[in-house]
TrEMBL record:
This protein's name: XdhC family protein
Annotated XdhC- CoxI domain residues: 15-72
XdhC Rossmann domain location: 169-311
UniProt feature coiled coil, ranges: none
InterPro entries (UniProt xref): MoCofactor_Util/Proc, XdhC_CoxI, XdhC_Rossmann_dom
């Protein structure tokens, strides 16, 4: 699931806990082009505040107009649901900013249960996969733990959506680069943990919303329990901190494992891991370094953009051409002109 959807569920949970009335909207069907995928969610509070998105903005405006006190209306009674469709014809598609021929269908839940939302968010934050089944007739929700992720189903009066786990990032090293990477990662929906046993670095950490871990990095990787939606990035340049953490990460399910450093440092790291820890070229195939895509970056902020772009490409299944790698690009730029 997109981590923005976890944010939507957290907002809905918190608003319900505060006694606010909430509408939860989910995209359940699309025809033609659609700004947001099936399963995308939005939470709408009774005063018009919204988190998440189901379109490019016009449908959100219509939902606010129809269902909030911002325009003098009231949300529907607790437990009620409704199915609405936008973009049935060309005029309506144009009105709501949908692409030509685009149509989407939403399930609206009015005042979903705070207890259900609290349980769901807690399980997602714990890294669980959760199947949420909504009975449209009465608004009741069943939460189960499935064996595998399945596509959203909307049929026979039930909405069945498999959610989670959220994308997570573990950063080794709490320096300036980690602050930029963690900020960008949070903007892109990752839950971020930074690990650094060096007190002077952790005391200076200033990025809100990041979990802090002061264990030795290899222990932190074990505690982090990386899964297929986890990435681990070593940023200290210190082999005493990076190497053992990378060893643990390489033998996990993390979709991305990488370390900052020059081409020479990266080669030295690989040689150390093979000589002292029995790794092989095959076992190190997953290790990325130098990390990032080549954009001529020099400053910590620019390097963070480069690193985050590569992580997102791997997450989204994009095969980057070799010439975009930092190593190949630098070799090409350093090659003598013929």
């Amino acid at each position: 699931m997109d981590n923005i959807d976890v944010m939507v569920l957290r907002a809905a949970r918190d608003w319900r806990a505060a006694g606010q009335r909430v509408l939860l909207a989910t995209v359940v069907r699309t025809w033609g082009s659609s700004p947001r995928p099936i399963g995308a969610m939005m939470a709408l509070r009774e005063d018009g505040r919204a988190v998440g998105s189901v379109s490019g903005g016009c449908i959100e405006d219509d939902l606010i107009y129809r269902y909030t006190r911002a325009h003098g209306d009231q949300l529907q009674p607790t437990g009620a649901t409704e199915v609405v469709r936008y973009g049935i014809n060309a005029d309506e598609a144009h009105r709501f900013g949908l692409p030509c021929g685009g149509t989407l269908e939403l399930v609206l839940e009015f005042a979903p249960s705070h207890e259900d939302l609290h349980t769901l968010v807690s399980r997602l934050e714990a890294g669980e996969l959760v199947r949420r089944t909504l009975n449209l007739a009465d608004g009741n929700v069943l939460l189960e733990r499935p064996d595998a992720h399945t596509a959203l189903r909307f049929e026979d009066g039930y909405l069945v959506n498999t959610l989670g786990p959220e994308y997570r990032m573990l950063l080794i090293g709490a320096g300036a680069l980690a602050e930029y990477v963690s900020t960008m990662a949070q903007f892109n929906g990752f839950s971020v943990t930074v690990c650094d046993p060096r007190v002077e670095y952790m005391d200076a950490w200033a990025v809100p919303g990041v979990h802090k871990d002061t264990q030795m990095p290899d222990d932190a990787v074990v505690s982090f329990r990386p899964d297929q939606r986890s990435c681990i990035v070593a940023l200290t340049h210190d082999p005493k901190l990076d190497d053992l953490a990378l060893l643990e990460a390489l033998h996990s399910e993390a979709f991305y494992v990488g370390a900052i450093g020059s081409r020479r440092n990266n080669q030295g790291r690989r040689e150390r891991l093979m000589i002292h820890f029995g790794e092989t070229e095959a076992s190190l195939a997953k290790l990325r370094g130098p990390i990032g895509i080549y954009i001529g970056s020099k400053t910590p902020a620019e390097i963070a953009v480069s690193v985050m772009a590569e992580i997102l490409a791997v997450k989204n299944g994009v095969q980057l051409p070799g010439e975009m790698s930092v190593a190949q690009a630098k070799e090409r730029h350093e090659a003598p002109a013929l």
